[in-house]
Specification:
Strand content: 5-15%
Strand order of the largest sheet: 2-1-6-3-4-5
Mean pLDDT: 97
CATH class of the largest domain: Alpha Beta
Number of domains: 3
Largest sheet: 6 strands, mixed
CATH architecture of the largest domain: 4-Layer Sandwich
């Protein structure tokens, strides 16, 4: 079967039954793979109002038809489930080598259901699949787990995806770690994995992935790779990693500081102290750390040879630098790298972890929290020691850390005393490190994000940075503070992200492709007939079904909002005096989406996309 391996594993953890199910090619035509397949399966199989940490939830690992091929950045895979952080459907993607290795076992994906009686891990070595005892692994960090299982398998090329202690202890901001420090990071899917007593999945395969037209794929891959290597923007990722956004973004007002309260930090000098250039000059180490078949090579490998933060391993990317740096007013690059390392080991989402700590620091500053609440910690801005100890406690989900490990929305609800105002989240998901006061399209994009506030499943701000898509109706570079067409930017970005997360490709390559390019790519890899229009329709179908899931859970326009702070202009910085008109954007976005005034997809829209079950659910 071209592009696909032709089968998906279904693992019932309650009974121990493991079986293969054939790929449904009609589903492939409608949902492609990756995040699209995960969305369809979760919608169909997870009942409304199901407990995200209960056995009825599904945990889906899914590759796409391009995963593991010669096409650049094809190392990605998607994970999906009902989020314990938000209560709605969440998909998260990761890269490295685990996805291609799963596919080389002869499987396109895995569906986990039920709950094991005791800790287990799944071992897949080609067609030999078995659940094995993981009691000795429970409590070990993500790095230890990967090392132990790879050695135990006896297969040098085997790869492991696993959870750390935070996922075992059901933190809603825990994530799934693979290939050292890569992560399916957002939405608490690590807790879903922990709730099923599933510690890890080891994959080792030897099977060949067969494209429909390999010579054409080779030609397309060569051309795209050449374009990437010649692109100055991609070159910045190669030289400085995503951390270069810290060096460049602050001047426009894009880098949040002090829990989104200020527009300028140390007159601009603070950002330079923790940016990609400083990292390259100090702790960055040359390392063959690129993801599978990736010419961009944005992954960082750092070495801190001595001192309290001594370690060598994966380095921080931009979101981690923002969450633990400017958000907390910490300008010690080595300390921030160590905080990211702790999150990798414990299996914590760095965005939600840093942002929740920023909420706690502000709550402490304003009297909503005291030392009695924090277990003696002096939570003040820039206090490295207090933040590191807080991360440790969150990773262990103990004491004050157990409260913060729930995320800022729940922590602020428990604490009260007005602290909800400075929990900067949407639908429970902490806002990432790009400011909607800098790029107005991010306002509606965050407010309507299918998994909560997200900059990667809808990178609309790139439209304001010159990434356009004429085939999708984005014909010009938008001014970042324009009033009109931000709803269009968000819709198109969300739909196209659904495509590259289903195909599955890295967003840094995926954003450069027009819809017709995806049509060609799916034709020569999977033999599927797509053109620009059907690609756009597939993206719309996936995002609309994700929204239907949210609506089934009670989400509507009342939830499509931002914290007041993000709709209030700052007096200084590159976006001084600017704030988006969210209501205007929402009206435009809903109209383009075919949603009613309550934010629910119209029945006719659902039917036109072939989503009759969703139409029946929402309009019974």
């Amino acid at each position: 079967m071209f592009g696909y391996m032709g089968k998906i594993l279904r693992v019932d953890l309650s009974s121990g039954e493991i079986k293969n199910e054939p790929i449904d090619m009609q589903m492939a035509q409608n949902f492609i793979g990756g995040a699209g397949f995960a969305t369809k399966i979760i919608y169909d199989e997870v009942p409304a109002k199901a407990d995200p940490l209960g056995p009825e939830n599904r945990l889906i690992f899914m590759t796409g038809p391009v995963t593991g091929t010669r096409f650049p950045t094809s190392g990605r895979f998607a994970v999906g489930g009902k989020s314990p952080l938000t209560g709605i459907l969440a998909t998260a993607t990761s890269s490295g080598f685990w996805g291609p290795e799963l596919k080389r076992t002869g499987h396109d994906g895995i569906i986990f259901e039920g709950k094991a009686a005791t800790p287990v891990y799944l071992e897949i070595l080609d067609d030999k699949v078995a659940l094995k005892d993981a009691t000795d692994l429970w409590g070990k960090d993500a790095y230890e787990t990967q090392d132990i299982l790879r050695k135990r398998s006896g297969k040098r090329t085997a790869r492991v995806a696993c959870i750390g202690p935070a996922g075992e202890r059901l933190s809603p901001i825990s994530c799934i770690i693979n290939d050292e420090g890569r992560a399916a990071g957002r939405g608490g899917l690590g807790a879903v994995m922990g709730s099923k007593n599933l510690k890890a999945i080891l994959c080792g395969g030897t099977q060949k992935i067969t494209p429909a037209a390999d010579e054409y794929l080779k030609m397309m891959a060569k051309e795209v790779t050449a374009g990437v290597e010649a692109d100055p923007f991609a070159g910045m990722f190669t030289k400085w990693g995503t951390a270069f956004s810290m060096d460049m973004g602050w001047a426009a007002g894009d880098v949040p500081a002090k829990n989104w309260q200020v527009g300028l930090w140390q007159g601009g000098e603070g950002y330079a102290k923790i940016g990609g250039s400083r990292m390259a000059d100090t702790i960055l180490k040359p390392h063959a750390g690129a993801c599978f078949n990736c010419p961009i090579r944005c992954a960082r490998w750092v070495s801190i040879p001595s001192g309290r933060f001594k370690y060598e391993g994966p380095g921080p990317e931009y979101e981690t630098l923002g969450a633990f740096g400017s958000m907390l007013m910490i300008d010690d690059l080595e300390a921030i790298a160590w905080m990211g390392e702790l999150c990798n080991k414990y299996g914590l989402d760095t965005i939600s972890t840093g942002c929740t700590i920023a909420w706690a620091v502000e709550a402490f500053e304003k009297g909503a929290l005291t030392k009695k609440d924090t277990g003696g910690l002096d939570l003040t801005w820039g206090n490295v020691d207090a933040v590191i100890e807080t991360v440790e406690r969150m990773g262990r989900v103990e004491g004050f850390g157990a409260l913060l490990a729930k995320g800022s929305r729940e922590a602020s609800r428990v604490v009260g005393k007005g602290s909800q105002e400075y929990a900067i989240q949407v639908k429970g998901m902490e806002v990432p490190m790009h400011d909607p006061r800098c790029y107005f399209s991010l306002a509606v994009n965050y407010a309507t994000g299918m998994r909560g506030a997200c900059h990667v499943q809808g990178s609309s701000y790139t439209v304001e940075m010159a990434v356009i898509s004429p085939e999708a109706g984005l014909n010009y570079k938008q001014g970042r503070h324009d009033k009109k067409n931000k709803g269009l930017a968000a819709k198109v970005a969300q739909d196209l992200s659904a495509i590259y997360n289903s195909v599955a490709l890295c967003m840094f390559a995926g954003m450069a492709l027009q819809p017709s390019h995806y049509g060609i790519l799916l034709g020569i890899t999977a033999g599927l007939p797509f053109d620009a229009n059907s690609i756009l329709q597939a993206g719309d179908r996936i995002t609309t079904l994700q929204r239907a899931f949210a609506c089934r859970e009670g989400i509507g326009r009342k939830d499509d909002t931002l914290p007041k702070r993000l709709l209030t202009a700052l007096p200084e910085g590159g976006a001084a005096g600017k704030a988006a008109d969210l209501e205007y954007q929402l009206n435009e976005y809903y109209r383009l989406r075919g949603w009613n005034e309550k934010g629910i997809p119209a029945k006719e829209k659902l039917q036109a996309l072939g989503l009759q079950k969703a139409a029946d659910d929402l309009y019974a």
